[in-house]
Amino acid sequence: VIGNKDGIKGLPANFEERRSFCAGVDGDKIKTESAAFYQTGWENGNAQFWQKLGEADGRLPRPANYYQTQIRSESILDNKTPLNPVAYDIGWKQGNADYWNAIGDQDGVAGLAATIETQRAANAGDVAFNSAAFQAGWQRGNQAYWTRLGFEDARQGISDKMLLQHVKVAEERQLLIRRDAYQMAWDTEIVEYWKRI
């Protein structure tokens, strides 16, 4: 636990200092295997530190090579934080996927066609485009779009025959049609509509 805390704070491994402190407080806590336990905890903590940093950078979004900027940052230099490019990269990939997933979700909720992906990829610039993450987000957002339409129609007491109108508009815009999402939301909310009436 002590090693893990040091690693998460971005501190270098320093078992000897920790051992000296513990020896003065409770020498019985120090065992032959204590150094190995500390090192294992520290390595996990250091990996968590860099993964968290990479994840934050990926979400901002910053390019993967932003690692080079991070290793020259004041806090890293002041703490003499041991570098871990592998852990940073793992975190950055997750953050980048989260970023593109959120963009896809936003586009889907806005009722944009899936073909917007081509434009997003072209405008990505230095930030690597993650197609799978974008598509997953867009699918979720598109479902939310149809759910909202069904909910709003039922909330206003509009017949679910309005779905035909929505489908016609969606076909013109080449938007994926989710009749199931619309109908489920409409069926649920129409009950509330009649209760209010």
Number of strands: 0
Unreliable stretches covering 5 or more consecutive residues: none
Assembly context of the chains: single chain
Q: Kindly, what is the distance between the CA atoms of the first and last residues, rounded to a whole number of angstroms?
A: 60 Å
Q: How much helicity do the residues have?
A: over 70%
Mean pLDDT: 95
How many strands, which pairing sense, and closed or not: the largest β-sheet?
Answer: none
> What gyration radius follows from the Cα positions, in whole Å?
26 Å
Can you describe this structure?
This protein has 197 residues and is mainly α. The chain is elongated and about 80 Å long.
Briefly characterize the structure.
The protein is an all-alpha fold. 72% of the residues lie in helices and 0% in strands.
